[in-house]
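Hey, I'm writing a tutorial for new members on how sequence and structure tokens pair up, and I'd like a real worked example in the thread rather than a made-up one. If someone can provide the structure for the chain below, I'll link this post from the tutorial.
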Amino acid sequence: MKYFWIQLLLIAGSVSMALMFIRTWGQAKNRAWKRIAFSLFVIVNVYAVLRPTDVTWVAHQLGVGRGTDLVLYVMVLAMGFLTLNTFLRFRSLEKKITDLARTVALAEGTRHNDARLGSAVATVVAETVVTETVIAEAVVAEAKSEPADSDSVKA
């Protein structure tokens, strides 16, 4: 009974994380393995809070001195994964933004040349740029539809 309040607080935190994650399922296209992994994380977290001696037993079986050390090691690995995933996602978004900026610059340059020259060559170039602009808009639409935690990152 002396650990009741801390256990209640930790379980409430786990449940609130799960509810926030479930609430965003309709808004974002989370991959199935992320849903499964997060669900398992919450279940294991609640179990570990309710039965801390079992975590110590698992730690001893794995050759780790204490259950808290095992939890720390797992959290370090998870943090490394999250950092790498975020880095790759930002790098992908930067590439998409660069491609979009190039397409917009070409479109603006063509529009400016068409207004200045008004020639048939400018019309052919304008058609090419319009095609590239349509492609760029599709890339932007795809980027907007990607969730913040998507792992469909192309390195």
